[in-house]
Amino acid sequence: MTLTSPGIGAPLVREARLRTYAMTPPVHFTVSYAINPWMDTSVPVDTDRALSQWHTLRAAYESLGHTVHLVDPAPGLPDMVYAANGGLSVGDTVVAASFAFPERAAEGDLYAEWFARNGFGTVHRTTGIQEGEGDFLVVGDRILAGTGFRTQRSAHDEVAAITGRAVITLDLVEPRFYHLDTALGVLDDATIAYYPAAFSERSRRLLDDLFPDALIATDADAEVLGLNLVSDGLNVVMTDRAPHLETLLHDAGFRPVTVDLSELLKGGGGVKCCTLELRRTRTMSDTLIPHDVTAPAGPTIDAEPHVAQNYSPIPVTAATAEGAWITDVDGRRHLDCLGAYSAVNFGHRHPRIVAAALEQIERVTLTSRAFRSDRLEPFCAALAELCGKEMVLPMNTGAEAVESAIKVARKWGYDVKGVPDGRATIIVAGGNFHGRTTTIISFSDDPDARTGFGPYTPGFVRVPYGDADAIAAAIDETTVGILLEPIQGEAGIIVPHDDYLPRVRALCTADDVLLIADEIQSGLGRTGRTFAVEHWGVEPDIYLLGKALGGGIVPVSAVVANREVLGVLHPGQHGSTFGGNPLAAAIGHTVVDMLAEGTWQERATDLGDHLHTRLREFAGRGVVATRGLGLWAGIDLDPSLGTGKEFCLRLAEHGVLAKDTHGSTLRLAPPLVVTIQEIDWAMGRFAEVLDEMSARSA
């Protein structure tokens, strides 16, 4: 049993148990024939989308702690993705399927071979037609068995004899619900949900007698295969298109975990169809998953014992994400207001970017720069045009882009400006954050990033941020570049005075110095412009780009400049095995095309105005100051309330993810797909946390 009562009058408590599943990826999925009412050969099938949805389902199981074994797909068997039909696993016994239609017949042999090869028990075959867990569902010590469309009644007796378990026959009468698992879902050892109209009158009476507390699905639930679900006793993985059933489950003490399997529904299958449970006499299913954790536990040194402790993350463990939302391993949804420091400007798993990635993965992903790829030049041409420049040096991470620009600026200084070899200097700003490599931390003033990592690289002059006069005083005959963030992100979203960047641009022009704009966090739509420097009408000599350029999928960065600057590099002087790889180029090109449309910048402007208006409402209520541009905000809290980390921990408990920086300052950078309603919801949670911390400090 997975349902316990802690005491008289106390609520029932659901308990999750770890499970082991078999799944087959839909590599060959299509609808080329019709053997059930859901299949229509005239409706196009997007195999890449099906594969993406399947991966999300698999990730959901693994995020809940379950084990997933993969069965290799076979060409010509598009329905093999529906692994539940491959057999029935009970104890140390497996009954491999015997399919009704010749189109699927070969699957039975393949699954039988897989069970035997991987040691999942003694494999049996039946004389009668039966399609595995499609029509045999284990509920405690009993097996519910469907018949009427696929599995023959005689096979029920065979399965009872093989497994030694009572098999209860249920008659299916509605053609759309041709397998038992399309009309009935097992929730735990004593609880089911089902759709009465799919069963004969006799079977309805039987189910009512056996399961008087069953959850009853509506027509709307059944029509989207809402009952084709998988439960571990607490967490119920199901379609995202059955809100009524989702509510029923929640009210009954279960935790719905919803996924989109709309593409696989075209073949007549859903969550359970894609999932075959492997039950052994002694398995991890005997292990309880803690059910009494209402919020993620605080960080400890043992939380990730094999991960180097170079971060102190908010204790939320992401399992899935889509758009502006992250779902954790406990099934709780969180509004992502950090956006991976602007790396997911376009939201988690944006369909257009994912589609480009999947398409390229099927072609070629890496050649190294020892050979050309057909994706690199088109990507670089599009990015150069977006920047109004001539050439692109593709790299991977933002720190690599900064390091590359430092090399380029020095080489330009020696080859073009005529600075004596070994004497080039670059002016940087106090409070800067350009990465954490050895060279970059050499000119940082952040003690956490710098202390203990010397000796430091020379060649940099640091002046206060926002002080153009200090830059003017620092420029001399050795100065080859001025490296700045147009808006300082890590420092707390520091926006300079309006005359700062124009004056720096004028100084660079007058003194033959390269203006290098680090737009890795501020660029690509974040502030309401393609690049933050556009707010001040400034064009740098070199753009440094990263984060959002990879669409939240792979690291992609770039140094973008005119030929007279990047032309100083020659073969062998700089490179990267992965820089500009075909997969990165395909994704980066898609991002550039999206930005070229201009709608993302407009969206960031409009939503940013709303965000900053709402934030200003908190002035005097525990908020000392707010600042920023577009969907990028820095918030200074009253230090008497507590630290920024404490505030972020409380926000996470309320379902909002943000990140602190420098004491009592917070940063907000939600994906640009966020809506006004979601911003307002986040501001409501922000207000609640402010009130809680104010009451505590009073």
TrEMBL record:
Pathway the protein acts in: Amino-acid biosynthesis; L-proline biosynthesis; L-glutamate 5-semialdehyde from L-ornithine: step 1/1
Cofactor(s) for this UniProt protein: pyridoxal 5'-phosphate
Protein's GO biological process: L-proline biosynthetic process
Family matches, as SUPFAM superfamilies: Pentein, PLP-dependent transferases
GO molecular function per UniProt: identical protein binding; ornithine aminotransferase activity; pyridoxal phosphate binding
EC number: 2.6.1.13
Pfam families (UniProt xref): Aminotran_3, DDAH_eukar
Keywords: Amino-acid biosynthesis, Aminotransferase, Proline biosynthesis, Pyridoxal phosphate, Transferase
Top-level EC class: transferase
Protein name per its UniProtKB record: ornithine aminotransferase
